[in-house]
Design a protein that fits this description.
about 550 residues, alpha/beta, nine-stranded mixed sheet
Length: about 550
């Protein structure tokens, strides 16, 4: 049974009122790949009455009236993607379609959806409590550079006039918040994984450069972001706070999850379907893409500078148990739409399943070195045996014919495995259909350093190994980024020549760098310096950015 979207569904459950109403910018898909569904199910599983409003027309109050005012709070999310990233291309053009809407349809998600929905709720229910969540709120929780307006914006908590943000993967924090509001009627200020505002300066914690400081002294944005990023660590156990006008935005340390937590979350029953009220308008493309996939773990210690996973899911990889994953696959085989193929068994990076650095869980992430850059750390016990065993065990489940890896694979991790050749051979034999996805992103040394990606030599070593062990008609499909900070036409020409020399098929997974909120690369884009303060080239014109991409797709102007 779906979480209710209508009064009729509430009555069917015997509910006259709701404790929590969740509003999302996506179609309601009851699947654990959709954040709003996980939050709703976790709350429901704890005994709260939860309803969902999907893609409301914020210009009409009717959408809020049917379910009524919740007893505790409204939870608001822009959806699985930041609304500005979802609504605009990297060239600044308005998108015409949305994969998270029915029938790949017209965009129903407003720009800056979190703020719009929050104001929408306040206009109808003025005294309602509002809790923000999802990636848009999570990555805009402190002052941040906004590429679409080319300016520093304040915390989305202040701009939206909401009461609290549950940042990151917030199942544990939202549950504690809900329980505290039910018990006291007040917004709690001590829950891990949350951010609130206060008129008084906190007595303890790390103070970040103020909004006014980074607004007037551009170069200080780099130091601000570095402290924010490194300070968001469950083992640091310190609050971070930042003054914005006459108020302070205060972040409690993040929650830390373990295998038991993930197993508990993914054991909750999901319909794994689109809600009928959304489905009547057509299929949801995002669901069609992931409906036969299984999440094996969360977090990523790759820490690429252009990626926000470190601040949202965290830098600690937490894996689900093999038994829990296999139970989910067995349930998937009973779905009417399942045809025998698990399309993806992975996570942010598929081959990080099953191993982590034990040192991190004692003292926290290293401050001066990343796990995989400039090289794979000697303290990381790279071993693919658990992942290979999982792949092959799932493949033996009755009703499963194929298990593929749709997530990206870190080729530097494969090379660091003591049994690299055997690992790659076993992956290619049954779990890659034709193209193996990897993400070198570039080959120019300067650009790779600014990205925190492995050097060109490591990619060449992997290409050689791949050709030694691959099966017939298997090729590498590489992801590349144009116009990243530090990249110019010479760097793109170097990349083009590399592709022609070493890659056997045309490469079409090429994107222009988008300076999305809260990444190191976005900080460098804004300030036009690297993280050490050295000036770098940054292509900011739309024409110049397109020109860099066109080098790789052989447009005449670049020949």
């Amino acid at each position: 049974m779906f979480l209710p979207m209508t009064e009729k569904e509430m009555k069917k459950r015997g509910w006259k009122e709701l404790d929590v109403i969740l509003i999302t910018g996506d179609a309601y898909v009851d699947h654990p790949s959709f954040g709003i569904s996980i939050i709703g199910r976790v709350l429901e599983n704890a005994g709260f009455k939860v309803g969902i409003i999907s893609q409301p027309d914020w210009k009409k109050e009717d959408a809020l009236l049917e379910l009524g005012k919740p007893n505790l709070f409204f939870g608001i999310s822009a959806g699985n993607v930041d609304s500005m990233v979802s609504n605009y291309t990297a060239s600044g053009k308005k998108r015409k379609t949305d994969v998270y809407s029915p029938k790949y349809g017209t965009i129903k998600r407003p720009d800056r959806a979190t703020i719009v929905y929050s104001n929408y709720v306040k206009s109808v229910y003025k005294d309602s409590k509002i809790i923000l969540g999802g990636i848009e709120a999570s990555l805009r929780r402190f002052a941040h550079y906004d590429w679409w307006q080319n300016k520093i914006r304040k915390s989305i908590l202040l701009d939206s006039k909401a009461d609290l943000i549950c940042y990151g993967m917030s199942e544990k924090s939202i549950l504690k918040v809900a329980e505290e509001i039910r018990r006291t009627g007040e917004i709690p200020r001590n829950v891990p994984g949350t951010l609130f505002w206060d008129s008084k300066k906190p007595e303890e914690g790390t103070e970040l450069p103020s909004y006014e400081t980074i607004l007037s002294e551009k170069e200080k944005y780099l130091a601000f972001f570095d402290v924010f990023y490194k300070g968001t660590d469950p083992f640091v156990k310190k609050r971070l706070f930042q003054k914005q006008d006459n108020r302070y935005v205060v972040q409690n340390p993040p929650e830390l999850y373990n295998t038991e937590d993930l197993d508990s979350i993914y054991s909750i029953g999901f319909e794994k379907k689109v809600h009928p009220d959304c489905l009547k308008y057509g299929e949801v493309k995002a669901f069609e893409t992931i409906k036969n996939s299984i999440t094996t773990h969360r977090g990523c210690y790759g820490e690429c500078n252009f990626c926000s996973i470190g601040l949202h899911q965290g830098r600690y990889v937490v894996s689900r148990s093999k038994e829990n994953i296999m139970n989910e696959v067995e349930a998937l085989t009973k779905k009417s739409y399942f045809r025998g193929t698990v399309s993806d068994l992975g996570g942010p990076t598929a081959n990080m399943y099953g191993y982590e650095c034990s040192k991190k869980f004692d003292t926290g992430a290293c401050k001066e070195k990343k796990c995989l850059f400039p090289d794979v750390c000697k303290n990381l016990p790279v071993n693919h045996s658990k992942y290979l065993d999982l792949l092959e065990s799932v493949n033996r489940i009755k009703g499963v014919n194929n298990v593929f890896i749709g997530s990206g694979l870190r080729y530097d991790l494969i090379l660091k495995d003591a049994n690299a050749g055997n690992v790659l051979k076993r992956i290619l034999k049954k779990h890659i259909s034709g193209k193996m996805k990897i993400a070198p992103e570039h080959v120019n040394r300067t650009v790779l350093t600014l990205m925190s990606k492995p050097e060109e030599k490591i990619l060449l070593d992997f290409i050689r190994l791949f050709r030694m062990v691959r099966n017939r008609n298997q090729f590498l499909a590489c992801y590349f980024i144009a116009a990243h900070p530090g990249s110019d036409l010479n760097a793109m020409n170097e990349l083009r020549d590399f592709i022609k020399k070493y890659l056997e098929i045309p490469q079409n997974q090429i994107q222009i760098f988008t300076p999305s909120p809260s990444t190191y690369s976005t900080a460098m884009y804004y300030v036009e310096r690297d993280m050490k303060g050295k000036d770098i080239f940054v292509e900011k014109s739309f024409k110049g950015r397109e020109k860099q991409k066109n080098v790789l797709i052989n447009k005449k102007e670049n020949r």
